[in-house]
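We treat protein structure as text, and this decision shapes the records that our systems exchange. Such a record has a labelled line for the sequence and another for the backbone structure tokens. The record that follows is passed on verbatim for readers who wish to inspect the format:
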Amino acid sequence: MKAIITGGGTGGHIYPALAIAKELCRRKPDMDILYVGSKGMESRIVPEAGFNFVAIDVSGIDRSSMLKASKSLVKFPYSFFQARDIIKKFQPDFVLGTGGYVSFPVVLAGTYFAPKTFIHEQNAYPGLANRILAKRVDCTMLTFAEAQEYLEAKRIKITGLPVRQEFFEVTPEAARKALGLEDNWFTLIAFGGSRGAASINRAMLEAVDRLQDKKMQIIWITGWDSYEDLSQQVKERLTADHKARIRMLPYMNNIEQAMAAAHLAVCRAGASTLAELAILGLPAILVPYPYAAENHQEKNARALVEKNAAAMVIDEFLDGDTLVKTVESLRSEPERLSNMRQQMLKEAKPHALDDIIAELLN
């Protein structure tokens, strides 16, 4: 059996695609997978994961000006025909797109030249590419049920988003023990991805200054770019008798342990992050990335806020004072925090990967 999988531009599109690819190979040892991507980060990550990879010449639409957008659109016919040639040569049984600008020409070509085509839409508000593709592909799989109202699709299945197995195996007690944390202290985790989030880091710097006299534990993952500078600033601000236990890290491979140990998170609202929060039942103060395509992170966050599973602060209005007030408000209302946890758990789709694989193989 053969499959073409495509998706790229960000880890949020690439890692779910790889999780699907690995599970397909586990269940079908004769499965032959070709990953079609751009020359971006997937060109490094996918071969390292052991999959055959080919790049096509495509770029995202730069909406900052008509001229830049036009340059991107000019490439599209060429990328479509590249994808057509790859599909005709490889002859897959199906094509799956997990998002990102590279998946559009590949899946579109698949609707003409492959037996079956699928897309997986990760966000509560589908991007333009998937809104177009949904009308043509055999099945559109969704992370958020809210996305249905924006789609005209042949067939829709709500699967959720695949999450790494480590998130299912970790427990709060074991995580706190492994990290050397106190069980009975309130624990806050703040992170913004591998490169960090400047707005979250700025607010956290002020928040740590004001929360240092509280009996609480703070795990702050700054991103590599800001770690040294922020660490030095925190050292200068902490008093000799501060009560809070603050652990700063540039990056964390086992972030599932820190998330499982925490009572509250401060983070962005990307689909992968939200899926991980849901599996752990971790309430969050969501700060949507303001430059995400079609503002999809804010729409993701609002979907959870409306279900009382999370709080939200718009990036533009995030500062230390707002963050401290929001954290302290939630910390002082354990019943509200507990309800948020229960609502977040309801959003979890622990069988997402199984459901996606079943759809593809059936």
